[in-house]
Design brief:
The chain has a single domain, classed as Nuclear Transport Factor 2, Chain: A (Roll), CATH 3.10.450. The chain is about 35% helix and about 40% strand. The chain contains three helices and eight strands, in the order βββααβαββββ. It has helices at about 25-65, 70-75, 90-100; strands at about 5, 10-15, 20, 75-85, 105-115, 120-135, 145-155, 160-170. α1 runs antiparallel to α2 and α2 runs antiparallel to α3 (about 90-100). The longest helix has about 45 residues, at about 25-65. The N and C termini lie far apart (about 85 Å).
Length: about 170
């Protein structure tokens, strides 16, 4: 079967005077490799964003343990963040929620899962939290609340992840 090369294309001569265009094997190999590379970049980019988000959530928790929950939330939230436990937004909501906690209270959590949009601009984490409030009365048992949380994050223009929505669900009991 005769073969012709035109402008990088491989053309095969098939009886009755017909030409059939087939892709150059080198071009096919390059396109296949490029597609595989792009698919890998998308996956690895998304995995990188997930890792960033988990790290942001863990740093947020570490700040809560070190500086207190109110200070940690004020540093981690976006200006217009919504906390589901309050009708206010942003710092007003944080100040209102945490005004009730004594300075000795600790709030810690551990993210169990994170996911990020394909664009890398929005993501969420969820996991388990524990609020521990020591009682000042001698012999009084501390108040311990455990439950689940979900936090929605948005990547800011400077690349930093900020909390835009946060909510939790208490397990119940003491």
């Amino acid at each position: 079967m005769p073969h012709l090369w035109f402008a990088g294309e491989f053309m095969a001569w098939h009886g009755a005077g017909r030409l059939r265009r087939t892709m150059n094997p080198r071009i096919a190999a390059v396109l296949s490799a490029a597609a595989a590379l792009l698919a890998g970049c998308v996956r690895s980019g998304n995995e990188r964003y997930k890792a960033e988000l988990i790290a942001a959530d863990k740093a947020f928790c570490a700040s809560s343990v070190e500086k207190g929950p109110k200070a940690a939330f004020l540093a981690a939230i976006a200006r217009d963040c919504k906390l589901l436990n309050d009708t206010r937004v942003g710092a007003d909501a944080v100040n209102n929620i945490f005004i009730q906690l004594p300075a000795t209270a600790t709030l810690k959590w551990e993210p169990s899962f994170a996911d990020v949009s394909a664009s890398g601009e929005l993501g969420y984490t969820w996991g388990r939290y524990e609020l521990y409030v020591p009682m000042t009365k001698l012999g009084a048992a501390p108040l311990i609340r455990r439950g689940t949380y979900v936090t929605i994050w948005k990547r800011q223009l400077n690349g930093v992840w900020k909390v835009v929505l946060d909510g939790s669900n208490f397990d119940g009991g003491r």
